[in-house]
């Protein structure tokens, strides 16, 4: 084989490799693709053959349904979602058109039909839930028939049409089939509007940021068959492409999170949490029925479900974790549980169970003005740059009257700390007690603690914010996506880059000069408060707040005692927390001033000399006697 021929083969391989890779660009199976510039909007006609025109920008998801190879394509524009798929069936049962009931949009004879099911609350249930039904688009195997828009809410084993509950029929679907060599090749195309205002129906809304769907095939059944009789694909989870552009110490994909559900989650109440965080790039693991602190991850999320218990040994493990700078988020059970009470008590708060009402509503609806301004809300985010404009959830509350009282509770787990109230609760809150008591002072719907040793802990007195029925409501997920990098301390932190003192040896009454360099995690000046103190064992000799400009801060400490001492420094800025500097050890000598500043040795020699003279005089006097 000639060298020229070898090079030719290598060039062909290289070209094929390049084109193979380029074909994957924009085809991230976790991102809903949008039609590119100059792209063609798909025509819903049951024709998927125009791959290079209408569906050129789509993501292709290959799967099998009941043993049949199925290829699903998904695409989006500003107003609609487009899903097309095809499969090959040897058991295709055509529709008996004479039995089609145009009033009910159903054909009650046995035949094949298909449903696109969108999981609105991300619980991956077959039937959805009464409070958050799944959106369904159904199409019969009948040429030129109209698909119907429906929903599944778990109150029945079948779908309901939106029009049956005074809703509107939104979206459409078309089927086409072609027989090749005895096999039926079936093609479906769906179109669903992104944001439909249908108060009676349960149409999906892309404002929820996440789309979770599956395809269900009904072979040789009636149109009102039980959902359990369907042959379905797996659930596919995707999100819109709104990754933030914020800089962080670690990317989201390197941010490991342990989701610890303390109790059982057999009903899938929190399944959407793991799905959502994974889709936005976080490396998550889920632990159920146990309270375990994972010291090897960036963040531990604890979901305290009803009837859960946390032992003292487990609290000791949490204490040790936080003493070393651990990071945690707690979502406490809405109802009174021993675990929720105990967690609140550890942070010197009272847990007030049951519901909180605002204007006699069972759900809290908070707007942006109800959110306390924290850096992670207003700055460019690692995961999403979408702002939080509204949140909806049910909640209990904390009584925080003792939490921030440094005389009653000077330390959280033996550390100095700062507590943030995450919501502005100046609006009237009614605590749902038997006597209808109104409480408004020192009541919080969420708090965070910045601990001196680097730990960050956030506590919410409710699990509803992350439950499947609420997680995708309003901007609940967006708030969580912004909170996680902050709580993990991969954004908005302080670092003390250097600590300098003028000497390590001093005399009493000397002044100790100290200079420190403090910035945020990227070396940018954020103007924190900087403190320095001098300690002799457990006694504080002197302390002062350092002053400065840019990132350099300096000051002096008064030395009033002798001994081996320690110079300690720390910086604090609200929203950024604490940063400790390296301790500096100094030695202070006793200050002896005899006019000529004689050394300790000279003083002892003088004393000995005087004593010797006195002894000689005493002996002489005795001799004369």
Q: Give the number of domains.
A: 4
Q: Which structural category fits the helices and strands?
A: alpha+beta
- Mean of pLDDT: 83
**CATH architectural group of the largest domain:** 3-Layer(aba) Sandwich
Helicity range: 10-25%
Top CATH class of the largest domain: Alpha Beta
Largest sheet: 9 strands, mixed
Q: Termini distance? A: 130 Å
Apparent shape: elongated
Radius of gyration: 35 Å
CATH topology of the largest domain: Rossmann fold
What is the β-strand count?
37
Strand content: 25-35%
Unreliable segments of 5+ consecutive residues: 1-26, 594-598
Tally of contiguous helical segments: 7
Describe this structure in words.
This protein has 625 residues and is an alpha+beta fold. The protein has 4 domains: 29-239, Immunoglobulin-like; 252-487, 3-Layer(aba) Sandwich (Rossmann fold); 494-589, Macroglobulin (MG2) domain (Immunoglobulin-like); 594-625. Helices cover 15% and strands 35% of the residues. The chain contains 7 helices and 37 strands. The termini are far apart.
